[in-house]
Amino acid sequence: MSTYEIVPISPERLDAMRVKDEDEFGNPWKPFPAEGWEPLRCCLRKAEPGEAVALICYTPWTEPSPWMEAGPVFVHAERCGGYPTPDRYPDDMARGKCMFNTFDHDGNRAYDHITFVSPGDSYEETLAELLGRPEVAFVHVRSVAAGCLAFEARPAR
Ligand SMILES: [Zn+2]
Predict the structure, then answer these.
(1) Ligand 1 centre distance from Cα of residue 9 (Å)
(2) Distance between Cα 64 and ligand 1 center (Å)
(3) pLDDT digits over 100-149, tens only?
(4) How far apart are CA 45 and CA 105, in angstroms?
(5) What element of type H or E holds 46?
(6) Which Pfam families match (predicted)?
């Protein structure tokens, strides 16, 4: 039994962007062939060379918040199957030095719980332990090197 749920970008939000032909910030939806290293935030795996992907600006927040951050992420240009195993930490995502950015139940950053992990640490155990703390409502996993959002994680429902 897993203690957390990995939350990729909502497929419905991505569909709406594809229909509108732009992301939620007005950047045009411009598919291009992947080189094969791009981390895809819709299904949490690396792109295959030649797959049609798009670079968009994305924020995980759906309501106004002073903590809102938006940034560049790669996604599939067309709808994909999403992330198949939300109870498992993605095998090849966010395995470099990462910030586990913690938020409380009011949606404020929970500074005391912010944790950095590096290769050699157990990403799974650290994430589960953080989400087991009563003060922590959700976590944003970010790459320290690129600063971009990898995915959100919440306690399993
Ligand atoms: Zn995808």
Answers:
(1) 9
(2) 26
(3) 999 999 999 999 999 999 999 999 999 999 999 999 999 999 999 888 89
(4) 29
(5) strand 45-46
(6) DUF1203 (PF06718)
